Amino acid sequence: MNATPDNTLADPEQKQAMSLIRPALREYRTWGIDSSRWKGFEPRPDDIIVATYPKCGTTWMQQIVSSLIFQDATSRPLLDIAPFIGGRHFGDPEAIYATINEQKHRRFLKSHEPLDGIPIYDEIRYIHVARDGRDTAMSLHNQWINFNDQARQRFDRIGLSDPAIGAPFARDTNGAGRDVPVLVEPIGNP
After folding, report:
1. Within a domain: residue 38?
2. How far apart are the C-alpha atoms of 19 and 124, rounded to whole Å?
3. In whole angstroms, what separates CA 82 from the centre of its chain?
4. What is the CATH number of the domain that holds 55?
5. Catalytic residue among 105, 112, 128, 141
6. Are the beta carbons of 184 and 30 closer than 8 angstroms?
7. Which residues have a Cβ under 8 Å from the Cβ of 148 and sit 6 or more positions away?
8. Which DSSP category does 178 fall into?
9. 92 secondary structure, DSSP code
């Protein structure tokens, strides 16, 4: 990394040839993620990607990485400084890329895509956090059943506008009046 003492890149416009170990092997598209959004990603040699399954400690790890990069424990707006490229409900990919490309500090990004759904570069550092699957499932269940109408409608629009999904977000089928999370195989190429 070519960084100055205040941990900003000496020349953020300087482009280095990156060693692509492998492109994304599979496309994942669900109501929450779309791995094809990584196709416009322009990596820097010192990027960090925090790649975790949802509800496994992503925010916790992002805060740790933020503390290490900025050398203090200040809580920062993580979606602004560590954008979620594949997050379908976090804005237009071009706006996310503009935010990322304007960053002067060492960049760290969020990913919920499986590792085979994002490109792997030799120079980038990837951090993966795992959690007991039973705890993850309960945490996801609790998040999904507590979605408000606005969140459900947003996910409905995403699912209905994507021909690969073609359906609204999963709804309660047992009559309890709440959404029942359905853990589905991501839609994409095998």
Report:
1. yes
2. 9
3. 9
4. 3.40.50.300
5. 112
6. yes
7. none
8. S
9. -
Average pLDDT over residues 44-72: 96
The answer to whether position 172 is within a domain reads no
> Is the CA virtual torsion 40, 89, 21, 67 positive or negative?
positive
Residue 112 a catalytic site member: yes
Q: Is the pTM of this model over 0.85?
A: no
Task: Label residue 107 left, alpha or beta by phi (over 0 means left) and psi (-120 to 50 means alpha).
Answer: beta
Q: Does residue 10 lie within any of the structural domains?
A: no
Domain that holds residue 42: 20-127
Q: Is the pLDDT of residue 178 over 80?
A: no
- Number of domains within the chain: 1
Within a domain: 132: no
For the cut 90, the answer to whether the pLDDT of residue 25 exceeds it is yes
pLDDT at residue 10 greater than cutoff 50: no
Alpha helices in the chain (DSSP H): 58-70, 78-81, 93-102, 133-145, 149-161
- Would you mind telling me the total number of residues written for the chain in this entry? 190
Inform me whether the pLDDT recorded for 63 exceeds 90: yes
The whole-chain average pLDDT of the chain stands at: 85
* pLDDT higher than threshold 70 for residue 126: yes
